[in-house]
Amino acid sequence: MGAVAGFAAVDAGGFAYAGGWLNRWTDPESLTPSGFADRFERVYGHHDGFRRNHAKGLSATGTFASNGAGAAICRASIFQKGSVPLIGRFSLGGGLPDQADKPDTVRGLGLLFQAADGQQWRTAMINLPVFTDSTPQGFYDRLLASKPLPDTGKPDPDKLAAFLDRHPETVAAMKIIKAHPPTTGFADSTFHGLNAFYFTNSGGVRVPVRWSAVPQQVPEQQVTAPPHPTQGRGKDYLFDDLIRILARRPLTWRLVLTVGESGDPTTDATKPWPKSRRTVDAGAITITAVQTEAAGNARDINFDPLVLPDGISRSDDPLLSARSAVYAHSFTRRAEEDKSPSEVDVARVLA
């Protein structure tokens, strides 16, 4: 618990909104962190104490065992050979903390690496190979355009079509995503950082990098999820499966760093880098346990993508400043609210 309290200390001290993002808009209906949080609430409703996005989740604990290979491109102490503790969070996209698990809902994995020198690295990854939007405005507009209608449970087709007509980059990204159907659960999902960052090594050489967490556990049958995966299964089946697996054994992902080259986009997360790019296997992320969200664990951590150790710096991707600012505002808002019990209950599953 002492380590957890240390991880959360940065959050308790408040946030500096990055890149002047807060000051770029003054219209209450435009892109401010408060406006973003309000739009999530407009789409998903208000749920005291929960994150405005990725509301449903489980806290996790584990370690990162660096093999030392990452030190060739990054001087951060996390990549020196050895192990550091981490806190994680598995989640589903969207602002409904009690939503039913579905195979096509975006899955998230947030991680906080705690280096021995006191520096932290935080990252929030998802199981999509590219992001759906290239700008904060695109994400903001798509959020409302894709709001399900009460009578059908699906978005208004005219509003969604109008949005897609204005955003060909989202159409292209959706084609890539469709070509990568979801796996059977959290344990066999690959999680991607999506945004580009810059890594600098001890010699001062700087390179653009994206990263992924690649699962080392493979299901018995490599099949895509069936059309009605929840038939005969519980509402929380994705989380329940994760809980049961971790009760038997740890789960491991390889942290794979992809090194960009000149001309690779660093400002647009909807565009993949060529598959031929050099990769570095930096070590093993091992999750040993999950916990129902309660005070003192990942519930109280903001996975701000701009909390970075020396050796990792932000790129010019406009989503990074926006994410940092909105995450901070959401954290502050929910920290002032009473929190209802989490939907997912580890003790219930293991009883």
TrEMBL record:
One protein family per Pfam: Catalase
Gene Ontology MF: a single term: metal ion binding
EC number(s) stated in the UniProt entry for this protein: 1.11.1.-
Cofactor section: heme
One GO biological process term: response to hydrogen peroxide
Entry keyword annotation includes Heme: yes
Enzyme class: oxidoreductase
Positions annotated as active site in the UniProt record: H54
GO annotation, cellular component aspect: cytoplasm
Positions of the Catalase core domain: 2-348
UniProt binding sites for heme: Y327
Domain of life of the organism encoding this protein: Bacteria
Keywords: Heme, Iron, Metal-binding, Oxidoreductase, Peroxidase
Keyword Oxidoreductase annotated: yes
PANTHER family: CATALASE (PTHR11465:SF9)
General function of this protein: Has an organic peroxide-dependent peroxidase activity.
Family: Belongs to the catalase family.
Record protein name field: Catalase-related peroxidase
Record lineage: Bacteria, Bacillati, Actinomycetota, Actinomycetes, Mycobacteriales
